[in-house]
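We close this part of the discussion by returning to an individual protein. Part of our work consisted of pairing the sequence of a single chain with a tokenised description of its backbone. No coordinates are needed to read the tokens, only the vocabulary itself. The amino acid sequence and the backbone structure tokens for this protein are reproduced below:
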Amino acid sequence: MPSKILVLIGSHSVGDTLCAIPTIKHLSQVYQTNIHVFTYQPDLLKNIPYITLSDNYDVKQDELLIETFRTDLFVHTRTDIRQIHALSAGFQLLPEEMEIDFFADELGLKEQVSKITEAAMNGELDFFESLQQRVGLLKGLEYSIVAKISRNLPYMNGAAETIAELKKRGMKVVCFSGGFRSATGYAKNILGYDADFSNVLHHKNQILTGLVGGDMMFNYSKGDMLIRLQGLLGVMEEETLVCGDGANDLSMFAHAGTRVAFCAKEILKKEANIVIETKDLTQILEKI
């Protein structure tokens, strides 16, 4: 987990500063560590815990500030304000399928992609076909935008704490995601899980081609990978805990003794033996 976080709000606008507040609050609640905030509107942020405010901000000094503070996690709201405001409302366990909706928003296609995502999560569409459709719509998007959004995804309340506690209990924690490596690989270093398996957005000359490949492209992918890991690690089915929220998690539910449906679709709840409706992953620890 990061020990020092730097947030630069490079706008004089009250509205832009207000847009940044949900993300700053989220960071303070999740990490409970010192957050250095440089802003032109310090009075708007003075009641947020765990932050050190500075009104001595000159946007031209950004690079110097970053070098001086040597932060573990850096958020810049001058260029990312719209994405940060939108992402602060994200509810995934870890950033999974929903991140594609934010990518699509950059092309004005969020509503179209979201409908496909929702249908796939409900089990109404084949996951592979839905993934191909959605990624195809992203053709032409700059990969730098994908990377920027992936680095700023907020994580579900209690994610880091729950992963840390599971590892203290001697468990291996692995992230299976129908989303993308740009997000899961970055999150691994922040949240501390042991490995991640997800998909890769193909890009050429830093532009998305509309093609995708990877580990988690089919309805059966998570279950297939789970069986392989159980064999590799010598873990029995009854010793395995899985947690998911949509139809593409069904295949791994078939091979685990403890099956947690977390703020999940009805199709997954029917196969779970633990159902959690509150967006706080630490509740898993109370059930196992």
